[in-house]
Write a structure and sequence with these properties.
elongated; seven-stranded mixed β-sheet; alpha/beta
Length: 401
């Protein structure tokens, strides 16, 4: 494709018009535009910026593929039945992007040297051509969007809410899987059953996982997401102080093709504050219902979520009843409550055995159990966390010998 035609077609991107804002496409447009100017210096400046954009992304083809994947456009909004004209426009846009990827620095420098009569332009830095995008036409791109999803939440499987209410991808999420969490089989099956119903578009509950610390509540939620990430499940971790950001999160997830677990870890309130009231309204009872593609999974060391004192229970019978109803009003709005209790001796030792086998720790059974029990006594008692810490210590000692 001629450079002048490529410049015009980049400006005429329609179905994928959002890609004009990506650094690589924007720099390419500037460099091509500068060829029509009267200044070799202007071209050199724009060309240098284009080289910098290529060097920054490393792989231009991968960068544009990601930009297409993360875009939200008219095609993604009409995936159920896209118009023929829209599919044709998407095909033309893909051809334009492929022509851009086929362009190398030498072609631009040669054209500029001839245009401005400045041989020194040939000594400018270079960048190579890149592979084309893996879509033959707009229909293939539509199929890709249906299979892989699209938009901001296609960037990762795990996200976190920031202090300003924005959502950012977690670059290195916890890779834990359910096979790494021995024990608590009944609890895990309840969560899996609810999550599968959610992914299948059936009725699913918000879940409150409560119980003793170190019993694997948070790890279980993260592991469930990792199990079903390929089915389009995403997790958004939200600190309790960010609960008032729920409306913004709802707005961002509403148009997304993915399913979301909003994860509230270590949830508790010192009193019935704004966050407490907001969460009650969002779970059930508010005028603006939450999106159908979102559920809330929360963990807490206490079932009633509000820290109580004996002073809270003082007063006449009516006030006491009101106080108790307030304390339970939030936890009762979770459709499913799952208890993670401290394991008894047999379950604790079962967890130790499973972790030892997975890690390749070879200790005779009685010795392993004796050392594990001693370790638990020195720590805060039996728990899956204690078992994992014990195994880690044994492995460290093993490799030092």
């Amino acid at each position: 494709m001629e450079l002048s035609a490529l410049s015009l077609r980049l400006r005429a991107l329609s179905a994928l018009r959002g890609l004009q804002h990506t650094p690589l496409v924007r720099a390419s447009m500037s460099a091509l535009d500068s060829l029509a100017g009267d200044s070799a210096a202007q071209f050199a400046d724009a060309y240098g910026a284009l080289c910098a954009a290529h060097y920054a992304c490393g792989d231009a083809s991968r960068t544009l593929l990601d930009a297409v994947h993360y875009d939200v456009n008219t095609l993604t909004d009409t995936l159920a039945a896209p118009a023929d004209a829209l599919l044709g426009a998407a095909t033309r846009d893909l051809e334009t992007l492929d022509a851009l990827l086929a362009l190398d620095g030498a072609a631009l420098k040669t054209a500029a040297s001839g245009r401005f009569g400045v041989p020194a332009l040939l000594d400018l830095p270079d960048f190579p051509a890149s592979a084309p995008l893996p879509f033959r036409d707009g229909a293939a791109l539509a199929s890709f969007y249906r299979a892989q999803g699209y938009g901001f939440f296609a960037q990762a499987t795990a996200f976190a809410v920031q202090d300003d209410g924005s959502v950012r991808p977690i670059v290195h999420p916890d890779p834990i899987r359910l096979r790494d969490l021995p024990g608590y089989e009944r609890q895990k099956q309840q969560i899996l059953q609810n999550t599968r119903a959610f992914l299948d578009g059936r009725e699913a509950n918000n879940i409150l996982l409560y119980g003793d610390k170190g019993t694997g509540k948070s790890s279980t939620v993260k592991a469930v997401v990792n199990e079903y990430a390929e089915r389009g499940l995403r997790i958004i971790e939200m600190a309790p102080r960010h609960i008032t950001s729920f409306p913004k999160i709802f707005a961002e997830t509403l148009r997304s093709p993915f399913k979301f677990i909003v994860f509230l870890d270590d949830l508790s309130f010192s009193r019935e504050d704004d966050n407490f009231a907001a969460l009650k309204a969002f779970i059930e009872g508010g005028l603006a219902g939450k999106p159908a593609n979102l559920v809330i999974y929360a963990t807490s060391n206490r079932r009633h979520l509000i820290r109580e004192s004996f002073a809270d229970r003082e007063g006449d019978e009516v006030r006491v009843r009101d106080s108790l109803e307030t304390v339970t009003s939030l936890s009762d709005r979770f459709g499913l409550e799952i208890t993670f209790s401290v394991p008894d001796k047999d379950e604790y030792l079962y967890i130790v055995d499973q972790l030892a086998a997975e890690s390749g720790l070879t200790l005779e059974g009685e010795q392993l159990h004796l050392l594990a029990e001693r370790f638990a006594l020195r720590r805060n008692g039996r728990s899956p966390r204690t078992a994992r810490q014990f195994i880690s210590q044994q492995l460290a000692e093993k490799y030092e010998k």
